[in-house]
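Lecture notes, continued. The same structure-token format from the folding unit now serves as the input rather than the output. Read the line below as a description of shape only.
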């Protein structure tokens, strides 16, 4: 049994020109697309081998960056040789692949064989496998069944058509945990992967408190009164610079240990989306019962303020025993139903418990899709979100189950 992930050529271009922040072609975000593919492969497909139809880049740095993505994934990979170099052959279980600059032959001992070519020249043998950086960004998965049969599946990095999805949780360079997000690049990524729009939701904590203050837990301990900076205007200007309705400026709002929101009322009023998040529990909550009361108390204090969405409802309990966390799923689903607030599906760290999501669905609590993107490859990456709803039998009625922004 073997599983091979196969992509066409990967072409990368450095962002240059008069407006280097504004990519005009997916090739200018090739590393982010590749990162997205490899993250999905690692999390869901577990291939024994990743094969690409060669790496072509405009600068040695870009080429190096693409090879680094492949190496960092720690997945075994094979890159097609450049023109003039000898073919490369590799065997995985009963599958043998022979790759050269023109294409690839895949065959097994039972006589199954297929040929794909990287280029688009007519008259050559085999099907064309388009470059990965060409919408809808397709790749193939070949899986052997151990009895001579091969199952072939095509997937794509772009969202399926017709779902009308917005990504309602994205960060900007103002987040201390941001990796490579800039607003123009994230918006370009969002459009290419098929989002209908996106909302930036910067941490209120990072807009109103320095990095040091956050590390010292000042915002939670002392609340908004201890603010030592104000980046709210600069942040909303950054989001507005996009000049159309595709991107909006919302907030991911924290709550201090006294149960007060860490955001001034005037800033809250202007926010296009209110994402409530509990990121910290009081240090004095030592026993499990104290933690439970603190968690439910802060969650409800948030919901009383009528946010649109409760972000990653249980992330603050990461590391606690699941059997214990599971006792909180039902109370939180009931609180969400009572206050009419949506629950976010967020896979940035871990995954939402399917049982909790079912409880929400049973109670009519709406769900929202958040990429929680800290790096560009995560923008609008809803593969896991859709897979979860599919598993719960809810993916065919998105209009009924999803919380949608009123625009
Ligand atoms: Zn968060
Ligand atoms: Zn976030």
């Amino acid at each position: 049994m073997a599983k091979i992930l196969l992509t066409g050529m990967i072409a990368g271009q450095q962002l240059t020109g008069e407006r280097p922040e504004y990519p005009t072609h997916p090739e200018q975000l090739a590393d982010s697309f590749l990162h997205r593919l490899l993250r999905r492969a690692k999390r869901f497909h577990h291939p024994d081998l990743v094969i690409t139809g060669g790496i072509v880049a405009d600068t040695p740095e870009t080429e190096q960056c693409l090879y680094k993505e492949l190496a960092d994934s720690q997945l075994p990979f094979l890159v097609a040789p450049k023109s003039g170099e000898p073919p490369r052959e590799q065997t995985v279980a009963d599958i043998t692949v022979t790759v050269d600059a023109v294409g690839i032959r895949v065959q097994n001992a039972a006589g199954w064989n297929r040929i794909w070519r990287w280029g688009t020249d007519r008259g050559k043998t085999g099907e064309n496998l388009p470059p990965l950086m060409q919408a809808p960004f397709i790749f193939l998965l070949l899986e052997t069944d151990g009895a001579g049969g091969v199952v072939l599946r095509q997937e794509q990095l772009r969202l399926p058509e017709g779902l009308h999805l917005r990504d309602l949780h994205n960060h900007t360079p103002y987040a201390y945990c941001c990796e490579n997000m800039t607003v123009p690049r994230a918006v370009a990524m969002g459009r290419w992967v098929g989002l209908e729009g996106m909302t930036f939701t910067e941490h209120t904590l990072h807009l109103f408190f320095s990095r040091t203050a956050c590390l010292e837990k000042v915002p939670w301990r002392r609340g908004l009164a201890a603010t030592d900076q104000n980046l709210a205007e600069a942040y909303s200007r950054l989001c507005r610079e996009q000049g159309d309705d595709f991107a909006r400026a919302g907030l991911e709002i924290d709550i201090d240990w006294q149960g007060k929101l860490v955001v001034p009322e005037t800033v809250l009023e202007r926010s296009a989306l209110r994402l409530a998040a509990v990121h910290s529990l009081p240090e004095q909550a030592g026993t499990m019962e104290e933690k439970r009361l603190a968690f439910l108390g802060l969650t409800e204090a948030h919901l009383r303020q009528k946010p649109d969405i409760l972000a990653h409802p249980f992330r603050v309990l990461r590391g606690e025993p699941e059997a214990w966390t599971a006792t909180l799923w039902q109370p939180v689903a009931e609180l969400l139903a009572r206050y009419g607030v949506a629950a976010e599906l967020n896979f940035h760290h871990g995954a939402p418990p399917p049982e909790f999501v079912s409880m929400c669905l049973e109670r009519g609590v709406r769900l929202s899709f958040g990429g929680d993107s800290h790096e560009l490859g995560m923008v609008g990456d809803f593969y896991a979100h859709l897979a979860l709803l599919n598993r719960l039998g809810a993916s065919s009625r998105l209009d009924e189950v999803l919380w949608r922004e009123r625009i």
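Point for the exam: The radius of gyration is 23 Å.
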